[in-house]
Design goal:
5 helices, outer membrane lipoprotein receptor (LolB), chain A, about 220 residues, membrane, 11-stranded antiparallel β-sheet, LppX_LprAFG lipoprotein, alpha+beta, about 40% strand
């Protein structure tokens, strides 16, 4: 019985070690966040997704699209406008925004006009976007490894978070996932009053060309 007991204990220990994501010493939180901010400032393009769970008190409910560091972007945004969800397709090219709702064709507005509602191109903007959000984090603590990412608990100031998620005006105790190899942001979970906003990124630096939608 004793050899069998030892074998069972050994298996339990091995499984526990694997499931913990352990393996090597975890990096210091502030150092990792500094690397992450620098990595995000160097990003040339990315695919992004913003989703909500529950009923967080923000007008942006969902967004999916592509971004370039130059500020061009395209995709779809779902906004809560006076209690009614409205999905808008968009293409931001230079200072011109092409957009359309559920019906009708594309119309145009300026980037400044779009910014009154939500400008997704700010996400990769170094001084207001994700890079600045990571640089402004306080008390980052690396909790462990999940898949190929470090899971980090940290707090983001509301002023900076609100640039990316309009309607946020208070500090957010967030969980973020940073790629181990590149330190780029893979995902961020932002608990807010009423629910949670999750921001995800993929396809970093893939070739992206944003073109105007067909006329008519």
């Amino acid at each position: 019985m004793l050899p069998k007991l030892r074998l069972i204990v050994a298996v339990i220990v091995l499984v526990s070690a694997c499931s913990s994501g352990g393996g090597g010493e975890l990096p210091a939180g502030p150092d990792l966040m500094k690397r992450a901010a620098e990595a995000m400032r160097a990003v040339k393009s990315a695919t992004f997704s913003i989703a909500t769970e529950g009923k967080p008190q923000v007008p942006l409910k969902q967004a999916d699209g592509r971004l370039t560091a130059a500020g061009d972007a395209d995709g779809t945004i779902t906004l809560d406008v006076f209690g009614i969800l409205q999905e808008v397709s968009f293409a931001v090219i230079g200072e011109t925004v092409h957009f359309k709702g559920a019906t009708g064709g594309f119309q145009k507005m300026t980037r400044a006009q779009l910014a009154q509602f939500y400008d997704p191109s700010v996400i990769l903007e170094p001084t207001r976007g994700i890079a600045q959000l990571l640089a402004s984090a306080t008390g980052p603590e690396v909790e462990g490894v999940e898949g190929s990412s470090y899971r980090v608990a940290t707090t983001f100031p509301g002023q900076v978070t609100g640039q990316i998620i309009p309607g946020v005006n208070q500090g957010v105790n967030a969980k973020i996932w940073l790629d181990q190899a590149t330190a780029r942001l893979a995902k961020a979970s932002l608990p807010l009053p009423g629910g949670t906003v999750t921001v995800s990124f993929s396809d970093y630096d893939a070739p992206v060309t944003i073109t105007p939608p067909p006329a008519g």
